[in-house]
Write a structure and sequence with these properties.
This protein has 3 helices and 5 strands; from the N terminus they run H-E-H-E-E-E-E-H. It has 138 residues and is an alpha+beta fold. The chain has a 5-stranded mixed sheet with strand order 1-5-4-3-2.
Length: 138
Amino acid sequence: MSEAIDAVRRMFQAFATGKIDDVPDYIHPEYLNPATLERSDKRGPESFTDSVDWLRNAFSELHFEEIGYREGGGFVTAHLVMSGRHTGDLVGLPPTGRRFAAEQLHLCQVMEGRIRHHREWRDDLGCLRQLGLPALPD
């Protein structure tokens, strides 16, 4: 396995386990995930650890099934299925206790063996439907 794919795998292990003591080893000082800008303007390992805390507060029993990884041009693409149980606040939506599984694609720019930029495309609507949360208005 390449150093770049290993860094991305370590990122998902942190989300699943909450283990964040080694984050500077695989998260670049300039790390940015634009999806987190609504919650904070932080960058780097601190931004990533905030995301781990946020996700683990919203969901328990987190698991990431690895479908596949591709590497090229300084980027790693990860195809995963995230599953867990909704046991905490999810952007203002109270916990339902329901289980979910949602497909995701992640694109990570890896520099110097660490993730510098991270974008994701998730099946959020499918996840919300599994949790029984209110449907979007017509």
